[in-house]
Structures are given as structure tokens and as C-alpha cells.
Write a structure and sequence with these properties.
- The chain has about 180 residues and is of the alpha+beta class.
- It is built from 6 helices and 5 strands; from the N terminus they run βαββββααααα.
- It has helices spanning about 15-20, 100-120, 125-130, 140-150, 155-160, 165-180; strands at about 1-10, 25-30, 45-55, 65-80, 85-90.
- Strands 1, 2, 3, 4 and 5 form a 5-stranded antiparallel β-sheet that branches.
- Strand 3 and strand 4 (about 65-80) form a beta hairpin.
- Helix 2 runs parallel beside helix 6 (about 165-180).
- The radius of gyration is 17 Å and the shape is globular.
């Protein structure tokens, strides 16, 4: 999974520099909707992480990066270094989309069809829809689909934390069926 990120304001340059100086790994956690507290917001116990594979510096001091998603990690400890956290993590082993049963392959294909329907209804371009077929060979297809589709945070977090691919697929299928029926 590759995530193009365009969110780095100049004040986050320290975060990006720190990540690049320390192996290029970066964790990603959602920003709590409506967070009004002081300091850094709380983050979930399990977060996504990836490796920065490309950085483009912009004239205004911001940067675009491409982050290759590598999985999830459970936070063991956090250190606040405003404006970001440094975490000690335990990487979680997820079942990959490799040597899976025919039944699970069919379920992932069904998720793909449901996802394409949602994206088409939202006005996605045909090129994106055609590229979606690559998800069938992606090591983490359910996570990738879940990252593309907008739905409630708690369910998304549950999918992210689930390590069994079949269970993940069932959870996502419930969400996508509800979204397709709501069209």
C-alpha cells in the first residue's frame, strides 16, 4: 500500500527529518475529530506504520512524501516531543494475502466489486477503478480497501487491529454491504 501524503507543514519538518534520520519509518494514527485539548492528541494503542520511499521538498517548506504501508504496531511507550510523538512499538504479524483458501480469495474479489461500486458512485475516475484489480495480489488487500473508503473510525480501527485476514474481510464486507445498500 502506498500513501501519498501532502500534510507536512513547515512545523512538522522536525518529524519528517527525525523519521528519515532513523530508518525512514513513520507511524500513522488518525487525528481525533473535534479534538480541542491542549498539547498532542491521544492516539490509539494500535497504529499503522510504513517506510518513507520518496520525499519531495516544496518551495514553501512543506514536503510531499510517499509512505509504503508495512503493517500495524502496538504502542509500548510514547515520548512527546511536540509537535509529534516518538513511540517504542511492537510490530504485529498480520496474515498476508498469500496461500489463502479459494473461499477467502472469492471474498476478497467480492470486496473489490463492492469497493468499485462505491468508488464509481462517488465519481472516481475509470483509471482508478481499473487499477483496483491490483488489490487482488496486494499483501494486505483488506487494509488497503479500508483506507480508501470513508466510514466510521471505530470500525476502521477494529479492522486495522484484526490480524486474521478472514475476520478482517468479514468486518469490511459488513461495512461495504451497508454502504452499497445505502446508495
Amino acid at each position: 500500500m502506498f500513501l501519498p501524503l501532502h500534510i507536512f507543514e513547515p512545523r512538522y519538518r522536525k518529524l519528517l527529518d527525525f523519521c528519515l534520520e532513523n530508518g525512514g519509518e513513520m507511524g500513522m494514527a488518525p487525528y481525533p475529530k473535534g479534538y480541542l485539548g491542549n498539547g498532542l492528541p491521544p492516539i490509539p494503542k494500535v497504529v499503522g506504520f510504513g517506510h518513507i520511499i520518496q520525499k519531495e521538498s516544496l518551495p514553501d517548506g512543506r514536503s510531499n512524501i510517499i509512505l509504503e504501508g508495512l503493517g500495524t504496531a502496538e504502542i509500548v511507550s510514547l515520548t512527546s516531543t511536540e509537535p509529534f510523538y516518538i513511540a517504542q512499538v511492537s510490530k504485529r504479524e498480520h496474515q498476508r494475502n498469500k496461500n489463502v483458501s479459494e473461499e477467502l480469495k472469492e471474498k476478497i474479489e467480492e470486496l473489490l466489486v463492492l469497493t468499485k461500486r462505491i468508488l464509481l458512485a462517488e465519481g472516481a475516475e475509470e483509471d482508478l477503478i481499473l487499477k483496483m484489480n491490483q488489490i487482488l495480489v496486494h499483501p494486505f488487500p483488506v487494509d488497503f480497501i479500508a483506507s480508501l473508503i470513508y466510514f466510521d473510525f471505530k470500525t476502521k480501527q477494529t479492522i486495522l487491529e484484526t490480524t486474521n485476514l478472514d475476520t478482517k474481510a468479514n468486518l469490511l464486507k459488513q461495512v461495504l454491504m451497508g454502504l452499497n445498500l445505502g446508495e
